[in-house]
Amino acid sequence: MKMKTLKIIAALDSYKGAASSYEAGSAVKRGILRRLPDCDVRIFSLGDGGEGTCAAFHRAGTVGTFRVSDTHGDGIDAEYVLLDRNGVKTAMF
User: Fold this and answer.
1) Residues 6+ apart with CB under 8 A from 40
2) pLDDT digits (tens, 9 = 90+) for 2-56
3) For 20-42, b where at least 16 C-beta lie within 10 A, e where not — what string?
4) Could you write out the DSSP letters of every residue in the chain?
5) Among 17, 18, 29, 33, which is least packed, fewest CB within 10 Å?
6) Alpha-carbon distance 93 to 8, whole Å?
């Protein structure tokens, strides 16, 4: 009888100033595979709505910027990610 492969999801938010969401997930994956080398470990980048949220979606879409005004009326660049899932486009910024 064939044993099923253990599947683990590593889904972490970023560690501000220390590691991106993907980097943190990769570290967890390495640790798990050291102890359980036959596991199927998948990394999912997450964000809690803060500055790392857009970065968490970089792997899933197209990154761009556009010029906006800050609260003082000064021009700044805002980053967005354009996700395309089966023809349905969603912008996250």
Assistant:
1) 5, 6, 7, 8
2) 778 889 988 888 887 788 888 999 999 999 999 999 999 999 877 766 666 666 6
3) bbbebbbebbeeeeeeeeeeebe
4) -PPPPPEEEEEE--BTTTB-HHHHHHHHHHHHHHH-TT-EEEEEE---SSTTHHHHTGGGSEEEEEEEE-TTS-EEEEEEEEEEETTEEEEE-
5) 17
6) 29
The Cα–Cα gap between 20 and 59 comes to 12
Cα gap 54→38, rounded to integer Å: 32
Predicted pLDDT at 28: 93
In angstroms, the CA 49 to CA 73 distance is 23
* Bridge partners of residue 76, in order along the sequence: 68
